[in-house]
Amino acid sequence: MLAASPCPPQFRAFHELIDHPSLLPPGDRSSLRNGGLLRRQVPLWLSPPLDRALAPLHGPIESVSVGEIKVSLRQSLVKLGAGFLSRDPKLQILICDLEIIMRSSSTSKQKAKKSKRSKGSSGRGKWMVVANVARFLSVSITDLAVKTPKATVEVKELSVDISKEGGSKPNVIVKLQILPIIIHLGEPRLSCDQPPGFDNEGYHFSNLTSSALLERSSASSAPFICEELHLSCEFGHDREAGICIKNVEIQCGEVTVNLNETMLSKSKSSSTVPSQTDTVHIVDSVAAKKPNKKEAAVAALAKKAPMIPEQVSFSLPKLDVKFVHREHNLSLENRIMGIQLRCTKSRSTEDLGESTRLDVQMDFSEIHLLRESSTSVLEILKVDILSLVYLPIEPTSPVRAEVDIKLGGTQCKVLLGRLKPLLDIQSSKKKKMVLRDGSATSVKSSPSEPKIIMWTCTVSAPEMTIVLYSITNVPLYHGCSQSSHLFANNVSNTGTAVHMELGELNLYVEDEYQECLKENLFGVEANSGALMNVAKVSLDWGKKEVEPTEADASRSKLALSVDVTGMGVSFSFKRVETLVSTALSFKALLKSLAASKKKSTESHGPRPPSSGKGTRLIKFNLERCSVCFCGEAGLETSTIADPKRMNYGSHSGRIVFSECPDGTPRTATIMSTVGDGKNLKYSVCLDIFHFSVCLNKDKQSTQMELERARTVYEELLEDNQSSCAKVTLLDMQNSKFVRRAGGHKEISVCSLFSATDIAVRWEPDVHLALVDIGLRVKSLMQKQKLQQPEDVSGAGNIDKSKEVSMEPGQSAKSKKKESIFAVDIEMLTISAEAGDGVEALVQVHSIFSENARIGVLLEGLMLSFNGARIFKSSRMQVSRIPSVSTDSSDAKSPGVTTWDWVIQGLDVHICMPFRLELRAIDDAVEDMLRALKLIVAAKTKLLFPSKTESSKPKKPSSVKLGCVKFCIRKLTADIEEEPIQGWLDERYRLMKNEACELAVRSKYLDELAKGNLRPRGADVSDGSLERKLSFDGLEIDAQDPSSIRKIEEELYRRSFRSYFQACQNLKLSEGSGACRTGFQAGFKFSASRTSLFSISATELDLTLTSIEGGDTGKIEVLKKLDPVCGENNIPFARLYGSNLLLRTGSLTVQIRDYTYPLLSATLGRCEGRLIMAQQLFWSTVRFGGVMVTLVGYVSPSPLPVRANGTFHGGCGAPLVSRGGCYDGLPSRPFI
Questions:
Q1: By CB count within 10 A, which of 178, 321, 514, 802 is most buried?
Q2: Could you tell me the residue range of the domain that residue 1119 belongs to?
Q3: Are residues 322 and 412 in the same domain?
Q4: Does some domain include residue 161?
Q5: Helices within 323-371 (DSSP H only)
């Protein structure tokens, strides 16, 4: 009835299409008209459902357009059982040119109606009916297009085939094949307001545009392209769960994804930003419903577990993701090869209850990220992921997941030239700042809340390689890791915990690494020529229990702990040169990024304060570290200018003489002791044992601990195996440094440094080697800066403008705050080779200070030269106080602070050791300083030939020295006695006493033997009585010569024993140590005979102030004292002097250990000037001369008298002593 009706006007275009000679051949056209295919399809076209589909629809679908539908029957083979096949008819539906146009999401939501789905699962009978009917159906679609306002999906071929497996439990297999899939982003070509192909005459078919679709689908510029997709899904029926999915198998062809910056940009409207009141209500509702949502989520997972397929298989041979940024001319490629996914579902019964277990295994054969040409930033050759997921049946139990990831052949190439455009893009993004109220706090989950997922993850990589490239893509450094393991979980109540272990790490310079590869055919051995070698690194990250503070009462803090078992770093100048050039290039890169980022964030105002989240506690432990620098130092024979500075006083001032009296230039010749063209090879090694650092962000504190640090300088011979000199430069034990924020308003930072033992050594060779390294590095940095382009952004001007724009109130507040630095050192030893044959030693047994800016307490201070002690003090305190005296110069400069230094000592001993060559030591030290200055000048001239001395005036110092005050309870200055002289004097005195006593006893015994004396108690009238003696209780006959001889021998023995005992009772003195070797070392004298001449003072108070006029004022005083100096206009090379005010409680001058002192005085006072000047004459330009002038007095009376500017004591005469000038070789000065 429908077929006999006249053809409606809607199908005129179809008949015209059939009659068109260029589209269909005559045979096909006749068959269509005779009713073969036309009779089967025309009634379907005229059916009301198709007519409704072609018309505009309601809901999310706006319109559907179909080009052609074919229906046919065919037979298919169905497997009924083992070895049984059946031929079933199959209804095949072929749809061509299907186009579906979707509405926008906003309109579809308004027009969409809620649909209620009936609850309950289908029974087995319904499933059998559906399975038996669906197996006769097959659908194929060609040229499918789904268009939305934002994207268009195009499919060339789509086929769905449904079949049924025989058996007691029949399963339905659905197979889907799609060839290919192309997705275009953006608005479609046809408008959504007007249906496609619509005109005034009605509808017409859209298959005329199929050729255009094919052309566009083949375009490689589509955002998403999938060559093919095969999906096989097996459905079954379970009595309890109903319809379930048995097996799912997905096979994809090669997938290509093309992205650009417009696709990744996200535009957020203002409606998405909630207001402050809405935020508060949202936070409250979230906090109230959070536990219920977690339980609901677990229950939902438990319900959806039966819907998960029993077996899932997915394969993707290749995935290409390309990103193009047209604005920055950037193109990046990412490729993943061989993606395999397998998932199996099973039941598991454990202690926590019954659950559904999912075994998921994923494999990747190759991963290439940020690839360009043949190089990738990240390349992984093999990835194996094994996961076990336990979905609980009961909603009270959490979901458990175990993930094991294994990486093989990982290589990362840090290409700065490729990453710089990405960093530029990231820094150029403008971030919108959202102001939030401080009262709206974030909701924190408490540890007691139940967790939805409890997971455990393990990552292992047997070998990893990291290569760092420069901006020009030149390889610089090569890093290797032998084994890496990562373990992370959230099982504990504290939250997520991460533990990572890195095996042996080696860092090489790329050039050296390639040379080692050429030399070693079997690869580079570990730790052979490596720049840095790390034995093992352990890292722990997670929350740990700590003591709560007043600001934060929580007991758990997020902490990061890093443990390094051993590390070795080896430097050479070539490696230092590479590091410096790399650091400068990184600095320029970061500076450019910071400048661009600053421009983008200037308009958003200041940064909001930190939220206090993140890692709050950082710990770093290093068991052992060795840093070694191997280099070569050479000195070429050269001649350099050696000018001499002299001071002529107020008339001529300071003059630099660059010529000798004969007119020749004053120069110095520098020669190498090793030889011309030869370099001295050396090495400096720093060994660190048990070093730890702890950083607490909440307390704003930093703590460092070091068990021992030692630096050794070693000179190597030409064979590089044996050393000719080895010196320990630094040896520090049990040191600790603590730095924390000050709790007081006026204190910003409090620091503490403590150590048990510190030994420091200085040598000229080490000094020259370090200066050589510094000059070469400085020259290298200047060359690198010249090669880099100038900074046009003006970052330096920005910093200067910041300093200028600072308000005066802010600078005053910053100046008020000060830092406290406390020191506690048990033993400090500083030794130096101060000159040729001069060894200087400073030793302090204890250094303590609560604030080193104010004062330091020294205990056991000792200064010695060549092993001879010169200065010694048991306790001394050095401190500074603000100056009380007001000076006119200080009033003119309000920014200058004047400090007075106060030195307090309990007892001070100054000693002139026996035959210590002080003048030779002074000359040697002066020659050493002059030689170092000339050698450094020669090296500087060689490396910087065009360098000129800067004529910029020095900035005046903000700190000025007021006066120096000495407060010493007891001061002793003496000249040490010759050891053999003191020993002989003491032994002579003791022997003299014993000899006198022995002579008296011997004389009495002789008189008694001759009869001139009678024994005590004998009767004189009795002449016949025998003369007998009592000696030690024995009666001895005085007339017996042998008995008398025995008594004499015993007297000699007792005298010697008494002398020996007296010598033993002497308290020996250590002396100054000047005679520890040689003939004099065997003679030890007592403490009473250590000095030949000594001066002792108690309650000493000495104040030193500067002389008005500086050097000019000192020279004027010298000219008044010495008329020859003013008449001959003698220049001075050195000038030392000051005004002095001396007060003392008692003064004693002693010669040796005589009974009476040479001078003894009480309550002394001295006021005057002390000037020491070194003259330089033309006749002694080479060797020099010395003149020492002392002006002062000693007053025995407490009230001195001042008259006419000359100070007198109680004796009424000034005490003036002058020295003379000497020509020729220097000798001891005469004072």
A1: 178
A2: 1103-1208
A3: yes
A4: yes
A5: none
